[in-house]
Hints:
By secondary structure, the protein is of the alpha/beta class. The protein has one domain: Rossmann fold. The chain is built from 5 helices and 4 strands. Strand 1, helix 1 (11-14) and strand 2 form a beta-alpha-beta unit. The N and C termini lie far apart (44 Å).
Amino acid sequence: MEHKIGIIGSHEEILGFKTLGLVPLAVRKKEEVITKLDECIEKKEYAVIFVVENWAEQVEEELLERSRGALPAVVTIPGYAGSKGMGEKKLRKIVEQAVGSDILFKD
């Protein structure tokens, strides 16, 4: 079975990703982010789902709950406004849980 890669965000932010082969999953309100993600998880067709950062921060807890499994991998990406540091924050948390301390981002 061939897996898909999806991207969740506003129509304007994600439409261009279709040319790269990603499946655009447009949302207009935060509740739709979780609905789209749940649909993707249920279908078991997606290996990776990118979520634009400004939408991801609105449903951060729900994303954490749903990204505990192996597939799909849920990854936040910056939107028009630039990075808000969510990806780094998530990576920091994963590393701390794995090794017991923050070895990547120490100043």
